[in-house]
Amino acid sequence: MSESMTLPVLPLRDAVMFPGVTVPVGVGRPGTLKAIEAAIRSSEKLIFAVAQRQNTEEVGPEGLYTIGTVARIVQLQRGLNGSQLLVRGESRGIALRLSEHDGYLQAIVREAEEMGPIDSEDAAFEALYRESRERAAELGRRSGLPDEVVDQVIDTADEPSRFADLVAAYTEMPIGDRQMLLETLSVEERLRRVLVQVQRQIGVLEAQESIKSKVQEELGDRQREMYLREQLKAIQQELGEDDGGGDLEELKEKLDALELSEEVRKEVDREYSRLSRIGREGMESQVIRTYLETITELPWNERTAEHLEIPQAAEILDEDHYGLADVKDRVLEFLSVRALHDERQRRAGEVEAPADEAPAEQEAEGQSSAPTVEGRSPILLFVGPPGVGKTSIAKSIARAMGREYVRVALGGVRDEADIRGHRRTYVGAMPGRILQGMKQAGTRNPVFLLDEVDKLGASFQGNPASALLEVLDPAQNDTFTDHYLGVPFDLSEVLFIGTANFIENIPAPLLDRMEVVDFSGYTEAEKLEIARRYLLPRQLEQNALTGEQLEVRDEAVSTLISGYTREAGVRQLERELGRLGRKVARRFAAREAEGLVVLEKDDIGELLGRPKVHPERAAREDQVGISTGMYYTPVGGDIMFVEAATMAGKGELVLTGQLGDVMKESARAAWSFARSHAAALGIDEEAFKADVHLHVPAGAIPKDGPSAGVTMATALVSRLSGRPARHDVAMTGEITLSGRVLPIGGVKEKVLGAVRAGISKILLPAANEPDLEDLPEDVRQQIEVYPVQDLGETLALTLRGASFEDGRLFFPESLSGGGDAVRLSH
Question: Which residues are catalytic?
Fold first, then answer.
């Protein structure tokens, strides 16, 4: 390089270039572009990069510093808006003269000679150089650079002069300080000044970290969230993505689109005004926002169009369920009344509002086209044992009506807030299950199933059954107020259906609001048909089988019903069919079977093991002191035996078999009747001086109820008189001390249980004779029913050889000691 050279000038705004450093430079001014073109045309592509004294668009020779950097253009990229340069600094240069030439600045430059240290081996200089390198490395690490990058950058400068220029280029400092470092020709002085700047930057970073740590400690969760949101807002503004409060405007549009009553609209506007005032950073903003969003999600005016075609509804019910004739009739009656109400209301609307003004007036007053009070639906309560189709028939009603279906399980609910919701003052408050179900339905007239109403509990948080009183009252539920919502919500168009297993567990005020529809258990013939139509095809599909792979004969299904299930419904039967399906599926998977597998009656025990249910069967012969009764359980009816035995004693009555209080009273009434009518019954007075033991198997099962009265009386009289009781007659009925036989409940289940046990002669109270209409026709054809009004008739039918005529009880001579006729007084 010659002592002086003429080079094009590259003016730098707010930047200083150092020797040994490669930097990108954007060029757009016309004069600078011409200077670049001139430098490119030269062989060495050198240019004199010098900083401007002020950041101005136009610059002349007087606006530039004298000392700059002789740089070489490494790369040039031209674009529409200018050029991008990659320039590497070569050495310091002093401008001897600056002038304009052909539209760009030009300078006569001489290379500046640097002043090295007096003694590079001096300990002070060595310490200064080493300290500068260590502090520069520390600054790089504190700035977030990886250690490998820091070491690589520092190792590229192995001379003190080049190291000082490198650190100066990458350290933040004002332009004036940068220019001062460029003009410092003494290497030792430059190192010292660079070390000061580096140490200052380290101090700034330490202060920032300390301040950040203290601020984070002082900021709570809410302040931190606000701080982050403000940062996010600033970032979005920089990126041009700020919505400018559009989310609140969107919420406002949704609220304005709702057709609300005046009371609800007032509350909504009040809450929205509060939200607008406090903004996002307010402590209650999220609570209010969640409340308003809940308001927008509720179906205030959305309705599902109904299509109440009674023939179609009957087809749907028959398609989904077999049997349940009484239940289907009641459901179709309800749907018919509903259809007539809708038709009458539609006709009334056509007559009263022929013009367009009437609907507009109704909308202005906030009125809806909801059914009138006359057309409000009754609250149905389906009561019956588990597995008989209570829940599924509610779903069929929704399908028949074309309404949405919502199910809420109330089993185990012990908190009133689950029904009515929590007040908004509590943390984590939410609406109750009723409004959540309405939000899920998305319409104000769904079919709403309240499942397991009898399983509601009570605790110190309140009684949820009491909270349901308003929900299930057609006269009140048009203004149902949830604690969270705080404003009335109309539930009058909802069809509520409840289900329960035990009606006794439902509080009387709640039961009074519902219309009970009884579901009784299925007969074995009905279970067989249900298994053939629904259960078996479903289990085949679930177990990856087809009708071409598995066939279960009717005799095999009947064996499953009688020997492996004990229930009023069909859930256990479906589980047992599923077990059969899995056993057969395993055979196919193991290549042990192919083609069609047909399961006969005898195959059931091989696949499922021994029978798990051992129902009572009718006795084979008459016995003294043993009579056959009938009883009811939630899983169906069955027979039981009452046994009486006498022994030496003091004339006491001993009762065993876990009998309840009512059943014990029935036994004592039978004992007193036998003692008071001993002569008429042919009982020797000496018999009452012995102890009588009355036992009802099975002893481990608690039993109660008055319906075993006639059975106990028959067993006692049979034992005390020595006359055998008939084994082919099953009986039920409550008795009084005077001998009257009173009606009882559960006739259908009891008779079906007796028929399953092989008994065809049934003795019932005369008042229960109409209940026989509930029995299937095929069962009525199999049995003989004997209605009785007093114990004289009962004993004539249940004691072998006895007869009853004109109020007199006749015994055979062989047993009565002469064939006397005796009258039983009342």
Answer: 707, 750
